[in-house]
Each structure stands twice: as structure tokens, then as C-alpha cells.
Amino acid sequence: MNAEGLLDRAEKRLLDSPAIDHWQSGRERIEAEELLAHVLDDDDFDPEDEVSPAQQRRFERLVERRYDGEPVAFMTRFVEFMGLRLIAKPGVFVPRDSSEFLAEQAIRRLRRRPAPVHVDLATGSGPVALAVSSKVSNAEVYGCDLTGPAIALARANARALGLPVRFLKGDLFGPLPRDVVGRVDVVTLHPPYLGRREVRTLPDEVLQFEPIESLTDQSPKGMGLIERTAEEAWTWLRPGGWLLVEVSPDRSRPVAKALRHAGYADVRSTKGGVLKLTRVLTARAASG
Fold first, then answer.
1. How many CA atoms lie within 13 A of 229 on its CB side?
2. What are the tens digits of pLDDT across the range 161-188?
3. Are 113 and 182 in contact (CB under 8 A)?
4. Above 60 in pLDDT, residue 288?
5. C-alpha span between 256 and 84 (Å, rounded)
6. Which uninterrupted H or E stretch holds 278?
7. Among 249, 253, 196, 199, CA closest to 225
8. What pLDDT sits at residue 24?
9. Domains defined along the chain, listed by start
10. ∠ CA 37-126-173 to the nearest 5 degrees?
């Protein structure tokens, strides 16, 4: 069978999966192409190319794993993020395309500063921090996460890319060096913002394969980590610095309210990312 025939069959199979959230039209075809490219070790394969029986069997096994909800990144062992090839492993949240918008918003603000300092909280495998470091070469960049596996993977990504990001294990700002106090230009956060009871409604591709701490902070409405960050960031931000928070559109109003309540100015909800379905809440610390 040729590649196109295999892809057609795989797409139909994935469309029938109850474990996958079919939120984006064409997603199943794209994922089938990624899996076949992985099997063929060729990102530019021709749809008319014949696929050997051994390659076909391997591809079909991967398609079945995806049917059961396993993320493509765990099978290919990497994910692309703003042109960076990042290592992906089970046990660490898979970076989303939507977070590229968060990174872009941070980069735009950091480029205006003479000696920029950036802190990325709940950094996971480090996509936002690494993207900032790759685009703002003079930036001092830190990534913090509570879990050891995430920090280990983030450090591995930094080494592989040759980027000087310092990844630190600890709760929110806790592991940062004290000489960073009052010098941070931008804090970014893609928080676990689901309420503890909401998690059970997630599709299996998320619930069964993503670490629970990346989905919920166990607070009733998922606002606990966001509210803590808003309060604690004041110590670390320089006057006029920015706090940027990525959430889904349905969370933008309560997050904006929390940021205003914490005393931030210029609070705005800006849409962007994949299909404009992401909101980045931007809030500026008072300049004086």
C-alpha cells in the first residue's frame, strides 16, 4: 500500500477514537502524517511512495496507540515549538502550540528592555523559557517547576539546544536566587487552571497521559495558583514589569478580576494562538 492509502485509513480510525478530543478539523490527518513520517524517517515523503510491510505494521501499531489516546509526542519523542525541537517524555506535560502566543507576548516586551530578565513559572519541559532565550539573546532567563521530572527534561532540552536557561525545582518563585528580587521584567505562567472536579471530564488523551499537577492545582475553581502568583510576583517584578498568564477563553474574566484585585494595571485579555482560542492575560506592575 502507498502512503496516501495508509493515511486515509489511519485518519478514519483516529476519527472514531473516543479517547481523542476532536476539537480541530483535520487534526487526525496531521497526526497520522506525523506518525508516518516518524516511521519512514522522512518528513517529506511522497504520498505515492510505497510503504514496506514492516513499516506498515509499525505505523498501524502507532495508530492504535494514538487511538487509545497516547499523545503523538510520546511516540515520536519530540515536539516542535517556535522552531525548536524539544524532547518529549511521558510524565511531563506536552507543550501546546497555543503557548507560542504566550512566548511571543513575552518576547515582544523583553526586547524593549536593556538587560531583560524573564521568569517562566510551571515551566514543564521549558518551551516558553527556551523560546524566549532563543529570540532574546541578552535575556537572563529562569524556568521554575515543582516536579523533578519536568525540570530534568527542561534541562535536557536546554543542553540539546545550547541555550543558557536556568531551570530550578521548587514552588513558584521559591527556588529563584535572591538577587533577582525586583529585577524581573516579565513573568509568564501557563497554570493548571481546572477545578479539581473538572478534571474528570477531560478526554482520555489528557486525563490518562498528562500529569495531574499540570491540569489542576486542586483548588475548587482552579484559581489557587493564579492568585498566589499574582500576589507573590510583586516581590520579583521591577516597576513597570509584566505578568502574563495563559488560559482558555472561559477563564479570562475571573483571571482578569484576580489580577486587578491584586493591584495590577493595564490588565488586558488578548486572543491568539491556534484558531485564536487562547487568551493571554497581560498585567503591568505599577511603575511608581
1. 31
2. 999 999 999 999 999 999 999 999 999 9
3. no
4. no
5. 31
6. strand 278-284
7. 196
8. 85
9. 3-69 (1.10.8), 89-284 (3.40.50.150)
10. 165
Q: What pLDDT score does 90 carry?
A: 96
C-alpha cell at 152: 530534568
Q: C-alpha distances in angstroms, 153 versus 65, 143, 160, 184?
A: 23, 12, 10, 24
Q: What is the per-residue pLDDT for 272?
A: 75
Supply 123's cell numbers.
515551566
Model confidence pLDDT, tens digit, residues 56-82: 999 999 999 999 999 999 999 999 999
What is 140-194 written as a DSSP string? EEEEEES-HHHHHHHHHHHHHHT---EEEESSTTTTS-GGGTTTEEEEEE---BB
- What is the C-alpha to C-alpha distance for residues 190 and 120, in angstroms, rounded to an integer? 9
Measured between alpha carbons, how far apart are the two ends of the chain, in Å?
68
Distance CA 16, CA 65 (A): 13
Name the residue among 255, 259, 131, 115 with its Cα closest to residue 191: 255
Residue type, 275: L
What's the gap between Cα 246 and its chain centre? 10
Residue recorded with cell 513559572: 121
CA-CA distance, 204 to 44, in Å (whole number)? 31
In the block, cell 515520536 appears at: 76
Tens digits of residue pLDDT in 85-123: 999 999 999 999 999 999 999 999 999 899 999 999 999
Which one, of 218, 214, 220, 219, lies nearest residue 246 by Cα? 214
